[in-house]
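Researcher: Good morning. I'm working through a list of sequences from a screen, and I'd like to move beyond sequence-only analysis. For each chain I'm collecting a predicted structure so we can compare shapes side by side. This is the next one on the list. No need for commentary yet; just the structure.
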Amino acid sequence: MQDYQESITLAKKISSARTQTARKRIEQIRADLGRIDLLCSGTLSERMMKCGKSTCRCQTDPAARHGPYYQWRHMRDNKIAQRYVTAEQAPVLRQAIENHRLVLELLRSWEEQTERLIDANYPPQP
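Model: Good morning. Structure tokens for this chain:
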């Protein structure tokens, strides 16, 4: 009987430590999310392009192509939307896309920690 009691006490200590760790991680995730400003999904491509003039060097010489042009692609209303952005907008947009990816990663981690909290506080029944 004493072995059973000791195992229950040990399980409670482990559960308490897991709960504390999960709660601390969630607090950190919330703080990280609060520091993020701009968000955009999608991808940003830098392209060098040929023009429409048949006599332009860009038609035959890849080094003579025009650009760079920045093209942003993302989903809007379940369709791929694309547009060109300026060289000034590109770094801001690139950071916003990186922020979006970070937010998704943080939300996945928050979900994992929530699952741990639920399992620790409400153990599954056999």
